[in-house]
Amino acid sequence: MDGVISDHIPPSVQRALKRLGDVAVAVFAADWQLIWWNLSWAALLGDPSSSPLQLRNFARDRFPVDTGPARLALWPVAETDRDSTDVAVVSDLRRATGRFPHDALLARLVDELRAGNERFAELWAIGTVAAHREDHKTIEHPAVGAIRVDCDVLIDGDSECKIVIMSTVPGSADETKLRRAAIAGPPVVTNSLVARGWATFRGVP
After folding, report:
1. Banded model confidence at residue 116, pLDDT cuts 50, 70, 90
2. Which domains does the chain have, with CATH numbers?
3. Total Cβ atoms within 10 A of residue 165
4. Dist CA 59 CA 104 (whole Å)
5. E-only strand ranges, the chain
6. What is the pLDDT of residue 127?
7. What is the reported pTM?
8. 62 Cβ contact partners less than 8 Å away, ≥ 6 residues apart
9. Given a cut of 80, is residue 204 above it in pLDDT?
10. How many Å apart are CA 182 and CA 21, to the nearest integer?
11. For residue 103, which of 60, 37, 159, 36 has the smallest C-alpha distance?
12. 3-state DSSP: the chain helix, strand, coil percent, rounded to 5?
């Protein structure tokens, strides 16, 4: 439907994901709803399939409206520039409301975050437009210890899909830890749709 966010991952994005190999990567829809991830992502941050479909949303995690635990990263993640990421995520949602004016789930998400999270409401009112910058994160993995990663966000201009890539410096101790995490991390994702490939996970109430 025109004006509604799609969960479809464009063929060009699918090809790019395949070429990334074992790099930890996930794809989010225009409203930051998680729609695909690979096994390296699950090994690094925990298996998102343990969270209900409708709660697999990075904006909800970023701007919680309750005191519940994080749903997308199952262990602590520290970052170097939290404020810039906050502004960029709010800017993404503002742009999405213009691109997808008839998406009821997006409208509900924005209304809930404006009403329930003071930080989101403040940034939304300011109306700053921002892009995602390179970020550096430290993930406290329970099996292998702290892993330092570079985080890059690529955006597909047509679908507004966000491709989030977590990578380590080649040849570093962090790369070795990430490889170990892929072995000693969480169990293989059990959702059969993930195992088959480009599954979508957009929650519909």
Report:
1. very high
2. 11-185 (3.30.450)
3. 18
4. 16
5. 24-28, 34-37, 77-79, 135-141, 145-155, 162-167
6. 87
7. 0.86
8. 32, 85, 86, 89
9. no
10. 13
11. 159
12. 40, 20, 40
